[in-house]
Amino acid sequence: SIVVDCSNGKVAGTGVFKYPSGQDGVICDKSDANLARQSPADLIEGLKATVLKALSEASKNVKGFKKSDVIGIGMDGTGSSPIPVDKNMTPLGLLPKFKNNKNAQCWLWKDHTSFKESAQITALAKKIRPQYLERCGGSYSWEWFWSKIFHCMNVDRKVFDAAYSWVELSDFIPALLCGVKKPENIIRGVCMAGHKAMYCDNWGGLPDKAFLKKLAPELADLRDRLYEKAFDASHVEGRLSKEWADFFGLPEGIPVAMGEIDVHYGAIGCGIREGTLIKAIGTSTCDCIVFKNTKKVPSIKGICGIVDGSILPGHFAIEAGQSAVGDIFKWFAQILCEGELSKLAKLDEQALKLKPGQSGIIALDWNNGNRNILANPLLTGLILGQTLHTTQAEVYRALVEATAFGARMIVERIKESGVKIERIVCCGGLAEKSPLLMQIYADVTKCEMEISGVEQSCAMGAAIGAAVSAGKAKGGYDSFESAMKKMTSVKKKKYKPIAKNVAVYEKLFAIYKKLHDAFGGVNKKADLSAVMPDLIEIKNEANS
Q1: Cα(514)–Cα(538) distance, rounded to whole angstroms?
Q2: SS3 breakdown of the chain: % helix, strand, coil, rounded to 5?
Q3: How does DSSP classify residue 315?
Q4: Cβ of 471: how many Cβ atoms within 10 Å?
Q5: In whole angstroms, what is the distance from residue 102 CA to residue 30 CA?
Q6: Strand partners, 307
Q7: What is the residue-level pLDDT of the chain in tens, covering all 544 positions?
Q8: Separation in Å, CA 396 to CA 349, 354, 383, 428
C-alpha cells in the first residue's frame, strides 16, 4: 500500500506485507506444477497490515499529515484471480470446512490447471460463438475466469456447489472495503470482466446461458449469480464503510475506486496515452496500450484481449504478455544454481560484461508456457548451444535475451495490426534493478526504454483512480488525463538501442523465430539444421 500526495504524485508512506501461506505466498502442489493459489486470509491480513503501515509512515514523513486528509482509496490486484464465496460474500477458504482445501482458495492468475477446460471453451466458441474470441486473440486462456471455475467443477464438486458466486480479487477487496455483504451487490469492473470473463456489451455482457449450458448446465446456472453489467473506472465501487473507516482511522464515506488488474492500473501509474506501450516486468510481464474507442477495433491473433474502458474510460485497451520472466530468472538462480535470489544481482553484473552473441547460446522463454502469441500453456523452455565451458552468467544472459525476443514478438504483432507504438515505458522491480535487462530489451526491440518514475506504479495507478473518484472539489481530479499529468513521471535514465548490438540481435532474433515457430507448432516442416552453425558463426564473430 502507498499513501500519495495528489498534487504531485509523491509517495508519503509505504506498507509491505509478506504473505505467510505457501511458498512466498503462493500455495502450490508438489504433484501438480500447474497449481497456484493464494489464501484469502493472507489477502485480507495484507490489506490491513499494509494500509496501517503506509498511513503510519506518512504521519512520520509528512509534517502535519492527518488520516483525515485521505480523500479516497483505490485498489489493484492480479487477474484473473477468482475467489469462491458464499451468499454472505465470505470466501470459502475462510470457512473451517474448507480452510485446508486448495480449491477453496483464491485461484491465482498463474494457476494453469485448467488448460483442458480452456481448450473446450475455445473449441465451442469457434464452433457457435466466434465473436467471443475476436476480442481475446482467437483463444480463451487457461489463466482466465471461466476456465478456472469450470475446472473446479470438474475436480471438486464440494467446493463448486458451496460457492454461491465467484468474485475477482480486484472486485472483492473494493467491495469488502465498502461493506458489501452480498455478491450480487458488487459493482464489477469491466477490466476483469472484459479481459478475463468474456464480457462485452456488444453481446449482452457475459457469455449467454445457451453457450455456457453446452459446456455444463451448472455454469449456465452460475451466470445468474454473477452480474449483468460491468463498469469502467469512471464509476466508483462505493464508499468506505464505518467498520473499515474505524479500523484504519480514515474518514467514513470516502470513495473507493473501481478495482482494476494490477498492470492496468500500472499503465495509468506510468502515464499511459495513445502510442505508449506500458511493459510491467515482474514475475511475468504484461503489455498494455490504449487507443480511442471511436477507432476501428483490430483483430489481433494471439493477444490477451481488447476491451473498451478496461484501463482508461473512452479508450480500448490491448493487453498481451509473457507467462514467465522474473520467474525464469528466479528458477535459474534458486533451482539450477542452488543459490539465493540475491544471486541475480551478481549474475546481472557478470552478464553485463558479455557481448551479444558471445556465448553462442539461445533460449526459448516458455518455462511457464507461452501466453502470447502462441497461447499454449503446455510449451516448455529450451536452452541451446551450451559447451563444457559455458558459465552461469552466459546462460543467464541467454534467458534474459529470450524474454526480450518474446517481448519483440508481441510488439511486432501489435504493430502489424496497425496500432502505433511510439514509446515504451517499463515498470516493475526488474525494470528498476536490472540495467542488463533494460539495455537488452532496447537493443532487441530497437525501441528506447523509459522507466516509470515511481517504484510501485500499479499502486500509483490505483491512487490516481482514488483521486479521480474523489473529484476536483475534494482535492482530486476531474479526469484521468489531468491526474496523470500531475501524478506520474519517468526517470531521467533512458536506455537507447546500441547500433552494434542491434545488428547482432537481428541475427539472433531470426534464429529465435525459427525455434519459436518450429517448437511452437507454427511451422511443422521447419528445417533447423542451420541453427547451430549460425550460432557458432555469430559466436566466432563476437569473439574475434
Answers
A1: 16
A2: 45, 15, 40
A3: E
A4: 15
A5: 13
A6: 317
A7: 999 999 999 999 999 999 999 998 999 999 999 999 999 999 999 999 999 999 999 999 999 999 999 999 999 999 999 999 999 999 999 999 999 999 999 999 999 999 999 999 999 999 999 999 998 989 999 999 999 999 999 999 999 999 999 999 999 999 999 999 999 999 999 999 999 999 999 999 999 999 999 999 999 999 999 999 999 999 999 999 999 999 999 999 999 999 999 999 999 999 999 999 999 998 899 999 999 999 988 888 888 899 999 999 999 999 999 999 999 999 999 999 998 888 999 999 999 999 999 999 999 999 999 988 998 988 999 999 999 999 999 999 999 999 999 999 999 999 999 999 999 999 998 998 999 999 999 999 999 999 999 999 999 999 999 999 999 999 999 999 999 999 999 999 999 999 999 999 999 999 999 999 999 999 999 999 999 999 999 999 999 9
A8: 11, 11, 10, 19
**Residues 292, 273, 495, CA angle at the centre, nearest 5°?**
145
Question: What Rg value do the Cα atoms of the chain yield, rounded?
Answer: 23
Q: What cell does 132 get?
A: 467471443
Task: Quote the cell numbers at residue 39.
Answer: 489464501
Spatial distance between the Cα atoms of 163 and 90, rounded to a whole number of angstroms: 10
Nearest CA-CA partner of 317 in 332, 301, 306: 306
Closest residue by Cα to residue 265 from 463, 45, 458: 458
For the full predicted model, state whether its pTM sits above 0.85. yes
Residue 83 burial (CB count, 10 A): 25
